[in-house]
Design goal:
The protein has 114 residues and is mainly α. The protein has a single domain, classed as Rossmann fold (3-Layer(aba) Sandwich). It is built from 6 helices and 3 strands, in the order αβαβαβααα. The protein has a 3-stranded parallel β-sheet with strand order 1-2-3, sandwiched between helices. Helix 2 crosses helix 5 and helix 4 crosses helix 5. It is globular.
Amino acid sequence: MDEIGAVYRAAAVVIGRAGANTVTELAALGKPAILIPISWVSRREQFLNARILEEIGAAVVLEEEQLSSRSLKQNLDDIFANLRKYQKAAEKARQLINPRAASQIASEIIRLIR
């Protein structure tokens, strides 16, 4: 688990679930992805997370009901055939991330306490 950032960094395309941490890591690293949201989560949070990257062109959302070896291969083929386009969109995803968010939140809490 501690090495996931290094694994993502080394990958040309990531295939994974669409939890908040995964989507945030992918955006921060600017990585194209195929995201397969867990279908049984109560409010479809993973689907909504995945859609954020899909809407900017950085990811493909492949729902479990659509998942097969054929659909996965077709989507991978499409991404690799258009890799530069996906990489550019994934780079734009970096703008969604504020790397100083934790520090800013802590500073604001300290300011409010004082």
